Amino acid sequence: MKFPLQKLKQTGDEPFVFEDDVDIRELEDLNNDIRRISPVHVKGQAITRGNDITITFTIEGEMVLPCARTLVDVTYPFQIDALEVFNLSPYHTEEGEDEVHPVHGEVLDLTPYIKENVQLEIPTRVFSDDDEAHEEALQEGKGWQVVTEEPEEKKVDPRMAKLQSLLNEENDE
């Protein structure tokens, strides 16, 4: 998603509104959990004030991630609200903690920032709601097994059972 700087400057005080679908399938090849990602829908606006360009945009799409329990594909829809600030000044340096990005050349490319925001949105774990996938998942292996969280029955320690019987005898008397 590229914008010529001349086009952004022509709008004056009015925001430059944009909307498009962006293909970011390169994220599938990186070392992350994304198995597939559909083209994302990006819409937003750019406001130019002097040498600063502030872009607010929303990214909507779906990515396919592995289930943390069963490793089956899980479709994860997302919507990201993002804000990026750019500076056109050739003297601007990226010092300090500010998140102002310099623009080199005559075109502002928003695609790397779209990819970055999507990567930051990847959850650490997703779980499949598909009961069939849970049934087909491995339940035990060498040295491990899946344990359910059912409440355990109250078991009386055999050493304490004898003491309990003594207490019961005292109460009967």
Question: Layout of helices and strands, plus pairs?
Answer:
Layout: E1 2-4, H1 5-10, E2 16-22, E3 36-37, E4 40-49, E5 52-66, E6 73-87, E7 100-102, E8 107-109, H2 111-121, H3 131-136, E9 140-141, E10 144-145, H4 158-172
Parallel strand pairs: 6-7
Antiparallel strand pairs: 1-8, 2-4, 3-5, 4-5, 5-6, 9-10
Task: Describe the model.
With 173 residues, this protein is of the alpha+beta class. It has 4 helices and 10 strands; from the N terminus they run βαβββββββααββα. A hairpin with a 2-residue loop joins β4 and β5. It is elongated, with a radius of gyration of 29 Å. 13% of the residues are buried.
User: How large is the count of helical segments?
Assistant: 4
Shape: elongated
Query: What is the number of E strands?
Result: 10
Indicate the radius of gyration in whole angstroms: 29 Å
Q: Which structural class best describes the helix and strand composition?
A: alpha+beta
Biggest pleated sheet? 6 strands, mixed
Q: What is the element string, with H for helices and E for strands? A: EHEEEEEEEHHEEH
Average of the residue pLDDT scores: 79
Unreliable parts:
none
Straight-line N-to-C gap: 88 Å
Helix content: 10-25%
Sheet-strand content, in percent, reads 35-45%
